[in-house]
Amino acid sequence: MTDSLEESKDEQWMQHAIQEARKAERMGEVPIGAVIIYNEEIIGRGYNQRETKQSALLHAEMVAIQEACQWMKSWRLEHCTLYVTLEPCPMCAGAIVQSRIPRVVYGAADKKAGCAGTLMNLLEEERFNHQAEVKKGVLESECASLLQTFFKQLREKKKRSND
Question: What is an example of a Pfam family matching this protein (predicted)?
Answer without folding.
Answer: MafB19-deam
